Write a sequence for this structure.
């Protein structure tokens, strides 16, 4: 007999388990991999002594998420390192847009677009906690802070419309904004892409896009340690094949994609709901390339060597073209490449003087193509001599992603295409997006609002519903974390 079972040990599954165990429940977590983490693991992928983040590498939400603010990663031994520059966007000609943590310094570097950048992000930076609470909500209730919601909404509508370029006159600022928007892996302008750009763009000027010392694994290990310290049990190396394994559990929370519920539930799901899950669309994917380097990347543009993250694609027009190609099932000649260089703040990732480099390129869903040469060419374009630094590389194609994490269907690291409908109505059109027709069975993964990212909020929302409806515990889950 057990009160609650969590299937999957990504950040959301572990967040749900922490809340449930803090509520005094007997909790078990099951993970098919040999270690916890899901999309938040760290491993020696290239050479011994070179530690690479397997999926998530930089964490804009680690300081901002209501879950992590209440959990307090620092108090649990996680050292979050903050690059001076949250992200950089190199351009041809040896220039780059630089998102310093200081908003005014960022604006000063954008020339005649600086004032427009400050007007766009200034109110969001000032009201960042209210903005985060809105963006990290279940997307079913009106914002608690109406004024902040209006300011965020106006910018969202602008950046998702043909007016999205009206503020800017030069190249750097619009390229920077599009580089963040492309994290949604949909062609901008679009509502989901605009929402990502506004949220992550504001957080770049608040706490920064932090990098955990030693790797992203530190975040999930801190959650797992809290679960076990509080009496919970974690079972790794156990692939769950049926919900029937947990007939005695009072509630089951699934940190999984909809495809996994279909597999685990079999014919227990009502036909209409099963059909809705089958209709979930999976979007553009990622081909992940990790490099072991003999030295730092020789970026041509000043400042890029201080940035934790870089969007390597070129101008706004090039970024839009690359994302449109992927959405059409094609390969971009010059793909969008996200680069993370943890060594700018964390010297534990590689032997002294050496570096690891994280990179992924957007590709069509299900792609079997190794695009590492395209990734190298894009980086070399803005950092001549990069190729000569490569000691080893590791490639995981989009088609190989599900073998590592079943939630990444076809290599879609968002657990469902970030269309407008599938951003708000994830995974199916239900008032309670975390519940399923099966009594006591809930989704707690990024397939539910607020969507992808290392924030723990999908797990928090799902655990809150389970506590209230299955156990009659109505206490605020954030209060449980602070106990």
């Amino acid at each position: 007999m057990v009160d609650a079972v969590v299937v999957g040990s990504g950040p959301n599954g572990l967040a749900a388990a922490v809340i449930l165990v803090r509520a005094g429940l007997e909790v078990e977590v099951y993970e098919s991999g040999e270690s916890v983490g899901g999309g938040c693991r760290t491993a020696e992928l290239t050479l011994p002594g070179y530690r690479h983040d397997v999926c998530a590498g930089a964490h804009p939400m680690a300081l901002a998420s209501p879950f992590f603010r209440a959990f307090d990663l620092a108090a649990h031994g996680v050292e979050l390192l903050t690059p001076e520059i949250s992200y950089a966007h190199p351009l041809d000609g040896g220039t780059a847009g630089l998102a310093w943590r200081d908003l005014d310094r960022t604006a000063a570097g954008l020339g005649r677009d600086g004032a427009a950048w400050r007007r766009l992000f200034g109110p969001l930076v000032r009201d960042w906690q209210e903005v985060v609470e809105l963006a990290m909500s279940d997307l079913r209730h009106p914002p608690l802070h109406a004024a902040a919601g209006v300011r965020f909404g106006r910018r969202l509508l602008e950046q998702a419309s043909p007016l999205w370029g009206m503020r800017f006159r030069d190249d750097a600022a619009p390229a920077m904004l599009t580089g963040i928007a492309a994290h949604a892996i949909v062609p901008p302008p679009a509502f989901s892409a605009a929402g990502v750009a506004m949220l992550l763009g504001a957080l770049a000027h608040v706490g920064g896009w932090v990098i955990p010392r030693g790797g992203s694994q530190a975040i999930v290990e801190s959650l797992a340690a809290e679960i076990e310290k509080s009496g919970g049990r974690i079972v790794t190396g156990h692939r769950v094949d049926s919900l029937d394994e947990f007939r005695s559990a009072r509630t089951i929370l699934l940190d999984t994609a909809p495809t996994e519920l279909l597999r685990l539930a079999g014919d227990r799901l009502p036909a209409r709901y099963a059909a809705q899950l089958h209709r979930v669309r999976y979007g553009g994917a990622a081909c992940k390339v990790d490099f072991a380097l003999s030295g730092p990347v020789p970026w041509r543009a000043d400042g890029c060597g201080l940035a934790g993250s870089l969007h390597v694609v070129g101008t706004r027009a090039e970024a839009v073209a690359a994302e449109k190609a992927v959405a059409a099932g094609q390969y971009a000649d010059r793909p969008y490449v996200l680069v993370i260089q943890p060594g700018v703040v964390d010297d534990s990732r590689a032997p002294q003087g050496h570096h690891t480099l994280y990179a992924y390129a957007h590709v069509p869903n299900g792609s079997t193509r190794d695009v590492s040469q395209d990734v190298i060419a894009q980086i070399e374009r803005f950092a001549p001599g990069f190729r000569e630094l490569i000691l080893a590389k590791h490639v995981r194609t989009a088609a190989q992603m599900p073998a590592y994490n079943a939630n990444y269907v076809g290599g879609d690291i968002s657990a469902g295409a970030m269309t407008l409908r599938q951003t708000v109505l994830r995974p199916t059109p239900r008032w309670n997006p975390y519940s399923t027709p099966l009594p006591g069975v809930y989704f707690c993964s990024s397939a539910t609002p607020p969507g992808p990212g290392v924030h723990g909020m999908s797990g928090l929302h799902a655990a809150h519903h389970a506590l209230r409806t299955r156990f009659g515990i109505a206490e605020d889950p954030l209060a449980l974390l602070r106990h």
